[in-house]
């Protein structure tokens, strides 16, 4: 069972391991959007957005629902919002630690 969970986590994080996919998820935090709306929000071409959405869909991170001739995407699990928030907090903590280290190095150099 542990191996299955570790494999799931590894595959899940691999699916997130692209800056454009993260941007797409951050856009979808605000609610469901069409490909055109996502494209406009992140300023990327449609084929790149569609390709990344396909990867996110294949890993069940986003869902797409057909609405006429367009597909509306949303986050499959609302916990993705928390995951993105925690990742930002980890980044901020890393920055604080780096700043403190630089301050210490500058103090030692004086």
One letter per element, helices H and strands E, the order comes to: HHEHHEEH
- Order of neighbouring strands in the sheet with most strands: 1-3-2
Based on the coordinates given, report the CATH architecture of the largest domain.
Orthogonal Bundle
Percent helix range: over 70%
CATH fold label of the largest domain: Arc Repressor Mutant, subunit A
Give a verbal description of the structure.
The protein is 70% helix and 13% strand. The protein is of the alpha+beta class. The chain folds into two domains: 1-77, Winged helix-like DNA-binding domain superfamily/Winged helix DNA-binding domain (Arc Repressor Mutant, subunit A), CATH 1.10.10.10; 78-110. It has a three-stranded antiparallel beta sheet with strand order 1-3-2. The longest helix is centred in the C-terminal third of the chain and has 31 residues, at 79-109. The mean pLDDT is 91.
Fill in the keyword field for this structure.
110 residues; alpha+beta; Arc Repressor Mutant, subunit A; 2 domains; three-stranded antiparallel β-sheet; 5 helices; 70% helix; 13% strand; extended
């Amino acid at each position: 069972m542990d191996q299955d969970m570790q494999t799931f986590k590894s595959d899940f994080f691999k699916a997130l391991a692209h800056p454009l996919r993260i941007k797409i998820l951050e856009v979808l935090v605000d609610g469901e959007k069409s490909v055109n709306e996502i494209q406009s929000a992140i300023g990327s071409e449609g084929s790149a957005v569609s390709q990344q959405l396909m990867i996110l869909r294949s890993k069940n991170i986003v869902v797409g629902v057909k609405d006429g001739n367009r597909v509306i995407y949303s986050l499959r699990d609302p916990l993705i919002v928390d995951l993105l928030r925690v990742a930002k907090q980890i980044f901020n903590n890393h920055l604080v630690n780096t700043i403190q280290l630089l301050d210490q190095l500058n103090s030692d150099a004086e």
